[in-house]
Amino acid sequence: MNFLYTKREVVDKLNEITSSAENIVFEFKRDIDGEHLQIDINDSNAQEDYLIDYISIIHSINEVPFRKRIIVNRKIIANQDDYTLDLNLSNCEFKNQLVLFGKEFKGRVDFNYSVFNEINFSYSIFHEKTTFQHCIFDNLVDFYNTTFNNLVDFYYSTFKCSVQFHLTDFKNITVFSRVTFEQELQFLYNNISTESTKVSFENATFNRCIDISRSNFYCILNFWSSTIKIDSIIEELGESQFYKTDNGKLQSKTEKGNDVYHILRESIRIIKHSFKESNNVIESLRYQKVEIELLSRDRESDKKWSDSLSLQLNRVSNNHGLRWDFGICFTVMVGFVTFFILLDWDLIYRILCTKDFRNPHSDIGKQLIQFYLPFNIEYPSSFLKENLVGFLIFYISKFLIAYGYYQTIAAFRKYLKN
């Protein structure tokens, strides 16, 4: 159904916008069930600014029907340098490019419930509150050198494409709560206010890599109840084009070598520190474990076997400080296995055959208990093989048993501190 909309309220307001232009007709197309409203301009010349203002006006008139969605097919490149009034571009579906490059928005700007194919806000300045709540970003998002002087809110939005906030300034509260990042995310060399900036990723979901290693987020950070799919991120590190050079250019893991581990590990460290700052020790320990695992992978790729061995022992003995039961199992298994490896089975066989159970040295259980005393370093030659390899295994096992005790106590202490 095609028709020209001539509602008096709209025309009066449009006269102010189109006073400098002639023969501009705003054409409407409504789908058969009335769910969506599609608008366009009959003039192919540079009239994008009129379309932006018109969308804002149509939202300001309560009597206007078809409020569920405004579909904009044409590419919009705004020529107006600044917008002094509030701007409402909510409930829109921009099927082409929306370019607001180098603009200054002096009033409030709302894009709530909108869908963007490609959006460009490079070098733009937002002085008042800016909201992108419940939005979907499909293909391209460009916030290069964009400044948000007041609150910016992306609550419950979805980024289906990779997004980079390069040289983006966040001077006030910044909300990414319940946002889903389906692809890579990076904050690079951002300018923040240490006094007023608060960045919230509460309940956010990160499906791919996250890089805040060079974000300059020296402010209040909130990652409470966020989901970072670390396992899948680590598996995809080799394929990710997410990591950038200092000028923001994409580079792969192959080109940057092990820098990907360093970047991701530093990002995890910042998240861990944010939990410590809010006294959330349990969550900080969880990210500490991830940080150590990344360090372990980094050392493996660097062929530093000593660091790798130390990190692996830390993992199996108490799961990087998170599991005291791992420490108990580690200690018991080390003592039990090494004791029975060193047993002189020929001697045991002779004792069993002669049934000489009155022999005090036949009490294997007591010998095993003595074996678990880390400071009892006297070699129990009555039952164990006496050779150089046996002595070496014995003293290594004593060291590992003492290490197991220490790791168990360390895991307990971390939770007691909480």
UniProtKB/TrEMBL annotation:
Keywords: Membrane, Transmembrane, Transmembrane helix. The chain crosses the membrane at residues 324-343, 388-406. The keyword Transmembrane helix applies. This is Pentapeptide repeat-containing protein.
